Amino acid sequence: MDTPTFEQLSSTWQSRYPGLQAIGWIALTPAAGVPALERSARTSPATADFRVVDRDGHNQLVPLAPRDEYFVIRHITPLSRNRRALGVNVSSIPNSFDAVQRTVASGTAAATRAFELTQETEHKLGVVIYQRTLAPGSTLQTPPAGLVFVALRLEEAVESVLSQQPVPGVGYCLEEVTIAQPRGKRLAGLAQCPSVGQAGPGGIHTWQETFDFAGQTWRLGFAPTPAYAALNRGWETWTLIAIGLVSTGLLGAFLLATTGRARRIEEMVGQRTSELADTSRRLQAQQAILTHAERIARLGSWEADPITGASHWSAELYRVLGIPAECDSQLGALLDAVLPSDRSTLRDALHRVANGQPNASLDVRLPPENGESRTVHFTIEATPNPAGGTLLRGTVQDVTASRAAEAHIHYLAHYDTLTGLPNRTLWINRAEQALAFARRNQLRLGVLFLDLDNFKTINDTLGHPVGDRLLSAVAKRLSGSLRDEDILARIGGDEFVVLLPQLGRPDDAATVARKLIASLNAPFHVGNQDLVTSTSVGIALYPGNGADINTLLKHADTAMYDAKSEGRNDFRFFTPDMNSRAYARLKLENALRRALDRNELILEYQPQWQMPGQTLVGVEALVRWNHPERGRVSPHEFIPIAEETGLIQPLGDWVLREACRQQAEWQTLAQRTGHTCPVVAINISALQFRKPDFLTRVRQIIADSGATPDRLELELTESALMQPTPEIEAQLGALRAMGIGLALDDFGTGYSSLAYLKRLPLTHLKIDRSFVRDLPGDAEDAAIAAATLSIARDLGLKVIAEGVETEAQRDFLLERQCSVMQGFLFARPLPAEAIAQLLAAGSTAQQTAGQ
Hints:
This protein is α+β, with helices and mostly antiparallel strands. The chain has 30 helices and 33 strands. A hairpin with a 2-residue loop joins strand 19 (487-492) and strand 20 (495-503). Helix 14 runs antiparallel to helix 15, helix 18 (577-595) crosses helix 19 and helix 20 (648-673) packs parallel to helix 29. Mean pLDDT is 82; it is low at 233-250 and 257-273.
């Protein structure tokens, strides 16, 4: 039971018997249960400072002394005038503990002797009556769950009873009678209690009655004052006797009622009490349902008189507003609970409804709580006041969570969660507004389409988390290169668009494009490495390149692809002829998708020669496309399309399968002729290598084709290995365990790291043709080639030089002990049949130089 519920249950008794100081509940708590009791009590705002304490002999609250168990005041009402007693362990109060022990043992009500109550502020005496509770099926031998009690401030209690039959000129005296004080100890009333038989003014004797209640003996006496005789002449004795009888009966009825054992009162109220009890139960049940529903919905209700400001609040409203339950529920307090900047808004709404508007609803904010602001929703309506005028009533609901959810849903619908930029939907909406403004005012407008260069390689090799961090960093740099009125959005993957409203001249768009490209020049520090990326930009202008946003966006996209095809890291303005080139590229992409099914792809093999003996030791498999209409399509044209569209995966699988089949065929031929079969080198894309089932597919293809693993070599680019994870290292180790060679292709052009050269089980390094082209004249290329050969020797790796086309290049490499070379100086890529002829003849490089 919580504090509001207990207050509700006890409110009927409080209103019926105004002489009560307090009604409460005591929880029997073992020592180990005290912390849990304190935590439970503090969950209610009204008792957030609850603490279990003892009381000493001077009515001072002191820290709890060690005991096996405690009788703790858990609930007490009304809380406002009894708060000091909340949490007190009554075991520490001798008078109380004596009565507690008696009621626990007997099961009947037990009263204390008169003493100063803990909550007393005027040093007056009081009495507490305790009653143990018995759960269904329990006995007196069962430890009680707790006790209920009523506390009486004696002077107020007696006077509230006697006020029902006021008689001028008569005083009273209440005494406590004990074995130690049989003559009685004065508790309340006249300063001097009259003795038995003592005559007062006019010879009238006092009237006294002794009665027992709840284990204590009390005496109530009445005596005339000097004014008595003049007021009641002729009826003196009879009047005093009547006063005594009536007053003693009233006080006895009052005391019996406070313990719930009043048979005479029950007989007096009879059927009416039963009816009221039934009604009360029904109302309590309905109120409990309403309170529970309000608590679930975090919704409180209120009613107020706009003229007087008087109002009534539900218990939940206090919790919603974060206001202590004992605070006044005035209309002004409702306004004060709101954030100061929102009060005028709420005040205006209340004023409008009070002056004829049917209703109003609005959101306002509450002051921050624990650093977090809260939002509540007010509903206000007007109803007639039975006393005249208008009443305002409504609800207040905590909508913090729902408003936050709505804002989050709006954010997800309109913003990119990774970069925080507008998404396609929001960008198009704003772009259409800007276009309408430009159309009305005859202004220029620009759309820039950006696509990051080689981002797919970074994403596939380093993983999506690294790619996401790079995208976020790119978005920040791009944003910093734009004006406040420009609108940057991420519309998917590594694609961004920029809206440039109110362009002065076309060259302004070029200036922005250059700034965007330049902003990405510096490396990005992501994790423990520096990454480099660039962007290709396409530009479309209104009104020249389109009259609507979708057309401008499409043309900017087309221009961007033109920038990519011309070398990347640049920008292009859209021109009409780009449409025809974009269409041609789309046709080529579709044709490439069909090429695999139509057997339009073939492999050619470029021989690799052992130096200086110039012996054929290997071949590199190179894919070629014989287009049915265009003839031979350059790999430089269709390989980038395959990488951008994902076709590189099935294309790579086909190359691997065909090369393994061809190696098995040459192996059989070499065994027949007594020659050694050359190693077949196969290029593997980063995307292909990173697939989880790559190792399984390699094993299956080798098994299906009958290829010899130790005559196979997989060529991997640096981008595939630039962040070798334990899984990649294990995969490379498994390939080497099968006997397959591993070559690092295009060494020096990407993200070379001596650390992974040492860690990974590589067998070969391939010097890229870009470093061989200008040998021996270019000093930088010569230094790189020499350094590569030196590193390889120190690490125990073989080196293959690509693109050897002149004797000077060959001689330079020979002087530096290059092991293997390939290039047009020795042989161009050859069909499989030509390689078979070389195997059959045991050919050397001189024999094939002219082919």
